[in-house]
Amino acid sequence: MRKTWAPIGKTPIFRHSYKRDRISAISAVTVSPLRKWLGLYFRLHSTNITGVEVIGFLGHLLQHLRGPGVLLWDGGTIHKRAIVRKFVRRHKRLHVHRFPPYTPELNPDEYVWTKAKYNLSNGAPKNIVELGRRLRRAIHRVRDSQRLLRSCIHASDLPWP
User: How far is it, in rounded angstroms, from Cα 33 to Cα 19?
Assistant: First the structure.
């Protein structure tokens, strides 16, 4: 929920039907070696993301990116799974660096999701399919804008020239 306008004395009522349906997301902000082009890759899943989905996503990234890649990861346990560590060891192009614990402000990807969620706020999709459609539209809006992607990097506390 975000702030909204309402007549004085009339609190807005937001109705929804709570279900345990979910959309889990995995994403990565990419920066070209010369820092001239930013990209955003993502995948949505209808179940919780496991190590299998992480290595599927990393494989997808490796197909699209040339040369070595530096992964900046938060401390999520999903990144420490044995099958994920084995995949990273097998793919020498990937170089993993972890963010310090409890530092989401360093992660540009967090700001991508903040922007996407802002576009979803104060809405009540009728079902999980509609939510997925809205979420894709919101993420594509960020992905298709170099200005928005650059703002996500600048909003983070990462050193950036």
Answer: 43
